Amino acid sequence: LAIGDTSPAIVGLACVQLAPEFGDLTGNRGRAAAAIRDAARAGADLIVLPELCTTGYAFADRAEALQYSEPADGPSIREWRALASEHGAVIVAGFCERDPDGAPRNSAAVVQPDGACTIYRKTHLWDREQTTFVAGLEPPPVVDTAAGRIGLAICYDAFFPEVMRALAVAGAELIAVPMNSPAPIPAPPPSAVLASEIVLALAAATVNRVYVAQADRSGPERGIEWSQASAICDPDGGLVAGPVSGVGLLRATCDMRRPRDKVLGMRNHVLADRRAELYGAAAAGARTPDSQPTNEMVN
Amino acid sequence: LAIGDTSPAIVGLACVQLAPEFGDLTGNRGRAAAAIRDAARAGADLIVLPELCTTGYAFADRAEALQYSEPADGPSIREWRALASEHGAVIVAGFCERDPDGAPRNSAAVVQPDGACTIYRKTHLWDREQTTFVAGLEPPPVVDTAAGRIGLAICYDAFFPEVMRALAVAGAELIAVPMNSPAPIPAPPPSAVLASEIVLALAAATVNRVYVAQADRSGPERGIEWSQASAICDPDGGLVAGPVSGVGLLRATCDMRRPRDKVLGMRNHVLADRRAELYGAAAAGARTPDSQPTNEMVN
Hints:
2 copies of one chain form a homodimer. Chain A contains 8 helices and 14 strands. By secondary structure, the first copy, chain A, is an alpha/beta fold.
């Protein structure tokens, strides 16, 4: 694929912070559809919705997740395909998937106007998700769309800089992050200038020179409050939009030529400057000063 | 090494933001020594100084760097060893090293009260450093000290989340980051809530559950202004101290039991939750949707 030949230069981006009602699939699909229509009418070519936006999050157990799950060709994806086609927009959204083996997955879809749909199953499960969902076996994908090369990570996935880096190396220009991030208990200390989720989004945007489009949720659910950390970050690490409290729509106009240029200053390049030969050895196991013969020891 | 048996629980930490005068080695050593004494008197067990704190930064070329360079057993290290011994404190500081082959290195030292000294040579060179210095071949080290297990990265090294992760995996409880970070030109947009250097420090602290002790510099030099991004971040991603404008001393009391505990919430662990098998494949090269056979394609 010749980047720059077929990829768009300017993309209208929207991140939607929703407040689903637990278990109200019909109502939640309607709220998502209304938000998609609003965003598309406001000019969005790419619309990112939260994790598990049709079901809610706080499943009691696997059986309850299965009760509300649907296959990848179920009603949520069908509706998003119709909306993507109708509005000519790419939709990224999380849903509770029942996979072909009947297992519940915390999944997200990239749905394109031509009907193409890529499903990703969350690979890093947070807390009780570990007892509710089966973790994905495939890495987060990068999908070529009319709104650019979209990388996908779901909530806690984005806590791993390796995930964001791998997506950027694979060509992602924008990383979409459907999110349902429970607020920390106790609340963050006053020293927390920004929510951790936004700090991590800004850092990933900066070191990879990509856009990050994060769509968190709102609305208390079964005792959980949310960080409400929806944000749009640009490749210079600017916080372009967000966060927002409650239900809200974040918008930005993305110049996709920017994430294609990984050059920093006059002589640096955020991907080419990596020295992978130095990371593996250190990451492979604990080292002590005694095992570093080539560092000078002056005694 | 049995972590927890011999490692300290509480460490007094100081990060010193200095304003060296370019080329004034004697004056700069004196300023560094005075700051070390102040920090030690204020209770610091670990004192972090900026990158290249005895020479200044903006060398015209390799010859000028060599002119101001010194070997790893030169006067700067000798003075820091004497101060470390006198005050019972660990000193981390950057200096312009002339290596045994006569090449200039952008180096930092971890100097301990018993005289042990570990030298690290910066491996990710920023901008004109590429024409001035020879890059290090050895990974950033982790050094066991009476002030905890100290990881070391110099300025642009910390732009690579791989570096910070590798140090954490190698057992670093605190990552010291001597820094000379030229301020961005043009100035950061109003959307920049925090300097990028501080965002990256907070993110590294959060995802690795380590302390990050960053010591930047101040004082214009040969047309360069500085980000002045000195900061102390804790393992929950709190900004404990900094930034500061001009010359300043940041202090914190570090509970080193915190970075030894990598557990998040009830069921998560920031290192054990990594799924390394998913990162290499994606990072190895560009992927397209067509090469992801196991992601569902619904058409």
